[in-house]
Design brief:
The chain has about 525 residues and is mainly alpha-helical. It has a domain at about 425-525. Helices cover about 70% and strands about 5% of the residues. The protein has helices spanning about 1-25, 35-45, 70-80, 90-115, 120-130, 130-135, 145-160, 165-180, 190-200, 205-230, 235-240, 245-255, 255-275, 285-305, 310-320, 330-335, 340-365, 365-420, 435-440, 450-455, 460-470, 470-475, 495-505; strands at about 430, 445, 480-485, 510-515, 520-525. A 5-stranded mixed β-sheet has the order 2-1-3-5-4, sandwiched between helices. A hairpin with a 2-residue loop joins strand 4 (about 510-515) and strand 5.
């Protein structure tokens, strides 16, 4: 009876994401993350028989940045329904299905980490109601397919460590790990974490089976990258085709200690705000997020010391260790794949503190009871804030996000129609949403990438000088037009700097406006 009730509550928790997926079936926010539209365009090329290429980019270089498994899934959608944007509803249905599969895998992982009680069901429901996870489920992103394969692989590896015939199960876990890597290269720590977990248990044959099963996918992708990548020192081509090359080039000017310090702070804030949506950017909110993050990490360590889920914790540790060194500020998208492990750790710590509070009330003195009451009130506030944040995200923030992007898309359509009718067929443009520009107009485009080093250094003068050089930068790459919108650079720059960017580019003397309407400009690059 209790199990049936828990399953019913989990199904109810999935309903808000299903409703939002239905509301978002036209994917009005396609291109918001940039990755999502590039996946979609690369899948179009793959489905059309042109090979795995970035069809929206001038020269259509081979896609050597994103591994092919998720684009292959979207390519199946393109083959079944070749007309865009009508096929977006099927692409989104596939994305939401990945959310459901991830929740099933998370339930199994929670049962392994915490035991077979109702806690696993409750935590899975919490994942289903998390606005950040739901946002990934209603977007064309690879995070949830990757997270699903990651959990399946690690769960299989854990079971292989405790079975008499675990070699074959370890090999199967390695195959799934290979698929996870071919979804996102961020899965590479599994190649170390999986074998290390078996070796720590003195199971060398299983370690070898896991590694040998995962290696073909890793090696195959690396060979494809080396064989097909276009050699270049051009930062724009590196951004689109070479994760590592772009990182190495930008790292020289990023100020590594400052970058790592800022990334560590962003990482703690992102972990904490995973548990309470909408905390805000005030000092108090960021401090609260850091406290929640420390609690989650402490609980994760406690779980690891219990001896369960060794491969989960080895992978999570390696994954978290690489984020501060990456030249992008860690956000919630980076953390969704390991969110179930962090949530289990947070619950572990929450339960431990709640147990101490209960014990103090039962056996403590008056002063101890007063302190326990204060701590208990803080725990209740966390639960209340998490519940209200989930409601805010699911029933207000995400619907508003979709409506704002739907309205923006409608406002931008006249400009795209004008460009399709008036720009030369061989014209190429500088556009922040370059895949969207290509899908609407058929013209090639690329993005003016703000170097992450400029963002980390916080030098507005250097930013203005970089933007002032945009016409030379574009002309050197054969681009003859600029598409500018007020919301551009939202992923890289804070609002004040976005206003600076719009001012510099909209008033540049070498950018002659040929179209201006509703805050959307198309300029010829002189």
């Amino acid at each position: 009876m209790r199990l049936a009730l828990a399953a019913s509550l989990l199904c109810a928790a999935i309903f808000p994401s299903a409703y939002l997926a239905w509301q978002a079936r036209d994917v009005p926010h396609l291109g918001y993350f940039h990755d999502d539209a590039l996946y979609y365009v690369s899948a179009k090329s793959l489905a059309g028989g042109a090979g795995y290429r970035i069809a929206s980019l001038p020269g259509e270089p081979p896609q050597t940045k994103y591994p092919p498994l998720y684009p292959a899934l979207l390519a199946g959608v393109w083959r079944l329904s070749p007309n865009s944007p009508e096929n977006l509803k099927w692409a989104l249905a596939a994305s939401w299905l990945m959310l459901v599969l991830w929740l099933v895998a998370a339930l199994r992982a929670f049962r392994d980490l915490l035991g077979p009680g109702l806690e696993a069901w409750a935590l899975t429901a919490a994942l289903a109601l998390n606005p950040f996870a739901v946002l990934c489920g209603i977007s064309l992103l690879s995070e949830l397919p990757f997270a699903f394969l990651l959990l399946v692989s690690m769960t299989m590896a854990e079971r292989a460590g405790g079975q008499g015939r675990g070699v074959w199960l370890a090999a199967a876990a390695g195959v799934i790990a290979s698929a996870a890597f071919l979804t996102r290269t961020a899965g590479w720590p599994l190649l170390a974490a999986g074998p290390a977990a078996f070796l720590l248990r003195r199971q060398p044959r299983r370690a070898a089976a896991f590694a040998l099963a995962m290696l073909p996918g890793v090696a195959g992708w690396m060979l494809w990258v080396q064989w097909r990548r276009v050699p270049s020192a051009d930062p724009i081509l590196l951004y689109y085709t070479d994760y590592l090359g772009y990182w190495v080039q930008d790292l020289a000017s990023a100020g590594v200690p400052r970058m790592i310090w800022k990334n560590l702070d962003s990482l703690l804030s992102a972990i904490g705000s995973l548990f309470v949506f909408g905390l805000g950017d005030s000092f108090a909110a960021k401090s609260a997020a850091r406290v929640l993050a420390v609690a989650a990490l402490a609980g994760t360590v406690r779980l690891a010391r219990r001896g369960r889920g060794l491969v989960f914790f080895l992978f999570t540790g390696a994954y978290l260790a690489m984020l501060p060194a990456w030249n992008y500020s860690p956000d919630h998208r980076f953390l969704v794949p390991i969110f179930p492990i962090l949530l289990a750790g947070f619950w572990m710590e929450f339960r431990r503190v709640a147990g101490k509070v209960r014990a103090a009330f039962v056996a403590g003195r008056t002063a101890e009871r007063a302190a326990a009451g204060a701590i208990g009130a803080a725990l209740a506030a966390i639960v209340l804030a998490a519940a209200s944040g989930a409601c805010l995200g699911l029933f207000r923030a995400l619907p508003r996000f979709l409506e704002e992007h739907r309205a923006a898309r409608e406002a931008h359509l006249p400009a795209y129609r004008w460009a399709a009718a008036n720009l030369p067929r061989d014209a190429a443009a500088l556009a922040y949403d370059d895949p969207g520009f290509y899908l609407h107009t058929g013209r090639k485009a690329c993005r003016l990438m703000i170097p992450p080093s400029l963002v980390y250094n916080g030098d507005r003068g250097a930013l203005e000088r970089f933007l002032a050089g945009a016409p030379d930068w574009a002309r050197a790459r054969g681009l003859s037009f600029l598409l500018l919108r007020r919301g551009d650079f939202h992923a890289e720059l804070p609002e004040a700097d976005r206003r600076v960017a719009y001012r510099v580019l909209s008033s540049h003397p070498r950018l002659r406006k040929v179209y201006a309407r509703d805050g959307m400009l198309i300029s010829r690059i002189e």
